Amino acid sequence: MAEVTDGGPGGWSGVARTAQRYQGVLSLVLLLVFAYAFEPLFFTPNNLRNVLNQVAIPGVLAVGMTFVILTGGIDLSAGSLLGLLNCIAATWMRDGMSLEATGAYILVLGLGVGALSGLTIGVTRMQPFVVTLAAMVSLRGIAYVYTDSKNISGIGDGLAPLQQTQAALPVPAWILITVTGLAALILARTVFGRNVYAIGGNEEASRLAGVAVTRTRMGAYAINGFCVAVAALLFTARGNNGDPAAGLGYELDAIAAAVVGGCALLGGVGNALGTFVGALFISSLTVLLILQNVNDKVAMGWKGLIILVAVYLQNLGRK
Fold first, then answer.
1. Per-residue pLDDT tens for 71-124?
2. Which DSSP helix (H) or strand (E) runs through 123?
């Protein structure tokens, strides 16, 4: 894991490290206090269910992105992959395939595309930014070619089970909770999880220590692709159509959620539970800004500022 300097529990460094470790929780608490004071509609049952519905897709994307960021990488192609898988899922459902068959196919595709990105980065030693930027452009282009630049409609109600409510929570929220729990378990309790942290902390040292760097990186990107596929199924169920432009900018929300939740962009620091809190913060902020009638372009500016502050807090804790 990345080195954190010892500044003593009572010093400024100690305060900075505490703020860094719990920045997602602190941000969420401050946001909820603000909402309680200035926006009474925020805590209505309908709005809270809306927040949980809104957080599911970016939350699942962010959990997948956490694996990539922990290795010191980044994935700029997540939104484009979601758009392509959304179109493929809509096509399969329109053609009468079952939810089970469509879901399995989409998950395998996401897993495969993610693994290919990780393998390419590991073998070529190119920067993840460059490889996934190329993938972002290519996958978006494939989505437009696949659909002939048209939306796909008429897919019926085969994906309706993914929009139902179970035990007082929307199914997408249960899926996000499940994905987060599994990711936390993998990162904390498996050799693969420890290797992910090791690569992000010091790749060369990990290689010398016998860690299979390329294979671990490929696994991290494969898990990320799997999460993108899950998000694509939820997205298709929510919109009930296929759109080659779907997912534009979603990778930025995923990165923002992971960073706000405590993931270091340099790798080696962070966890899935923190990312979950970060995603909840980003979605709550989005809903709160809508309730406050703030323009969505202004909201994008706020998200950028939040990422900047989160990264600054991380740097304070590691000087």
1. 999 999 999 999 999 999 999 999 999 999 999 999 999 999 999 999 999 999
2. helix 99-124
Which residue from 255, 235, 236, 223 is spatially nearest to 110, judged by alpha carbons?
223
> CB of 78 within 8 A of CB of 258?
no
With a cut of 60, say whether residue 175 has pLDDT above it: yes
Residue from 277, 254, 276, 258 nearest 267 by CA: 258
Residue type, 230: V
**Per-residue model confidence as pLDDT tens digits over 305-316:** 877 777 777 666
Burial of residue 33 (number of CB atoms within 10 Å: 0-12, 13-18, 19+):
exposed
DSSP state letters, 142-190:
HHHHHHTT--B---TTTTGGGG-EETTEEHHHHHHHHHHHHHHHHHHHS
Match 């206090």 to its residue by tokens.
33
∠ at Cα 47 (46, 51), nearest 5°?
120
Q: Which of 61, 65, 105, 106 has the alpha carbon at shortest distance from 86?
A: 106
Structure tokens at 8: 């003593």
Give CA–CA dist 170/163, Å, rounded: 7
Residue 7 has pLDDT above 50, yes or no: no
Phi and psi torsions of 313, nearest 5°: -60, -40
Lookup: tokens for 155: 């897919």
Non-local (6+) Cβ contacts of 32 within 8 A are 284
200: left (phi over 0), alpha (psi -120 to 50) or beta: alpha
Spatial separation of the C-alpha atoms in residues 289 and 238, rounded to whole Å: 22
Which is nearest to 275 in space by CA: 300, 305, 254, 301?
254
